[in-house]
């Protein structure tokens, strides 16, 4: 297993790139811990695959270096990086048995047959395919074939990292849930460094210890699922994570008071705002309280989503969402208060510290 160093990496698909906007991947500079489970999360086109391909060696970055445990591997081809990869669609040898498919990466490296058997048996148990070990892969469902691909990704114990590129795309929703939980368990048992690309927040949040949120070619935050929910660093993280996402309201700020339209909201501390041009107040729908006290709102819609209700309302001329428990009443003359500890102030999209939180 290895620590993955991303040393001032940038990538442009055109040689003529000059401005930041010409780069599919803007500067990335981070160290990912040995044995960590990282998910690269972001919408289509944000640069996830570009970054994954740079780690795997399918792409050479325009600038910067990639390091495995401090060793520069930037110019090494994929085969020499000692990584395992699991792709979106199963890569399975139909004519081989399930056992032989899993044994393939080990036999390829001339691992002694007794060791192959022990390791493959262990993986077969982990992915619940032991009863099918002798069956030919041909004719198995896509789910089962993808389980074999996952197992093959996990079979070697000497890899630097295992890279997963949207591995559950072809899997039906129930099986997705099962495999996601198994993968998390496998990570805990094995301690492999894992990097998992997805645009699905549920997948990222359930799999990863650290979620790497990407937006427009940049990493905007690396954090635990709780960090992303409680303290998003960027407005993109606020509205991309959560369902519905964070409410973002244009504000002006004077000392410890934020003004939204004609309403005043007292903050937990004075935000340290520099000369930024655009200020927003962020509050998650879960931390807006609806009752008979506070600031007026006009409710436009109530969506019943089972154990919760989502209330859509107009607050000081801005649309906001409020999450209520299913049995919470909605008063006729509804008003809102904001939990001051849950408010974030964002200047030009980035969270600013307050005197109390710094
Ligand atoms: N081979 C290529 N040549 C030119 N531009 C490319 C190439 N591959 C990707 N891009 C561009 O680089 C940007 C980042 O693409 P990338 O595939 O890394 O995003 P992604 O987040 O993985 O998206 P998806 O989830 O759709 O795969 C996009 O604007 C894309 O159009």
From TrEMBL:
Subcellular location: Cell inner membrane
Key words of the record: ATP-binding, Cell inner membrane, Cell membrane, Membrane, Nucleotide-binding, Transport
Membrane topology listed for this record: Peripheral membrane protein
Domain ABC transporter: 4-241
Keyword Disulfide bond: no
InterPro entries: AAA+_ATPase, ABC_transporter-like_ATP-bd, ABC_transpr_FbpC, ABC_transpr_MalK/UgpC-like, Mo/tungstate-bd_C_term_dom, NA-bd_OB-fold, OB_MalK-like, P-loop_NTPase
The keyword Transport belongs to this UniProt entry's keyword annotation: yes
A single GO molecular function term of this UniProt record: ATP binding
Similarity section: Belongs to the ABC transporter superfamily.
Protein name per Swiss-Prot or TrEMBL: Glycerol transport system ATP-binding protein
Species annotation: Rhizobium halophytocola
């Amino acid at each position: 297993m290895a620590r993955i160093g991303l040393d001032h990496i940038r990538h442009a698909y055109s040689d003529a790139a000059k401005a930041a906007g010409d780069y599919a991947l803007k500067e990335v500079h981070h160290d990912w811990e040995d044995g960590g489970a990282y998910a690269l999360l972001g919408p289509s086109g944000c640069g996830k695959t570009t970054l994954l391909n740079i780690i795997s060696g399918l792409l050479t970055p325009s600038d910067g270096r990639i390091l495995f445990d401090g060793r520069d591997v930037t110019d090494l081809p994929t085969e020499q990086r000692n990584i395992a990869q699991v792709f979106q669609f199963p890569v399975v040898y139909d004519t081989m048995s399930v056992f032989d498919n899993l044994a393939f990466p080990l036999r390829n490296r001339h691992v002694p047959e007794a060791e192959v058997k022990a390791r493959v048996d262990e993986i077969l148990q982990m992915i619940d395919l032991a009863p099918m070990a002798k069956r030919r892969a041909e004719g198995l469902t896509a789910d089962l074939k993808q389980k074999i691909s996952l197992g093959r990704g996990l079979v070697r114990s000497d890899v630097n990292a295992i890279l997963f590129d949207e591995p559950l795309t072809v899997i039906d929703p129930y099986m997705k849930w099962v495999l996601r939980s198994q993968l998390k368990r496998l990570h805990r048992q094995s301690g492999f460094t894992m990097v998992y690309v997805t645009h699905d927040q549920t997948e990222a949040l359930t799999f990863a210890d650290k979620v790497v949120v990407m937006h427009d070619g940049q990493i905007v935050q690396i954090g635990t699922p709780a960090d992303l929910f409680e303290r998003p660093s960027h407005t993109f993280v606020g509205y991309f994570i959560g369902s519905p996402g964070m409410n973002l309201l244009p504000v002006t700020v004077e000392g410890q008071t934020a003004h939204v339209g004609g309403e005043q909201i007292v903050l937990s501390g004075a935000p340290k705002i520099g000369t930024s041009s655009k200020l927003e107040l962020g509050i998650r729908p879960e931390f807006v309280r609806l009752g008979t006290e506070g600031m007026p709102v006009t409710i436009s819609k109530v969506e019943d989503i089972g154990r919760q209700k989502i209330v859509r309302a107009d607050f000081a001329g801005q649309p906001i969402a409020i999450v209520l428990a299913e049995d919470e009443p909605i008063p006729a003359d509804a008003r809102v208060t904001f939990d001051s500890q849950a408010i974030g102030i964002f200047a030009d999209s980035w969270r600013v510290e307050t005197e109390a939180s710094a």
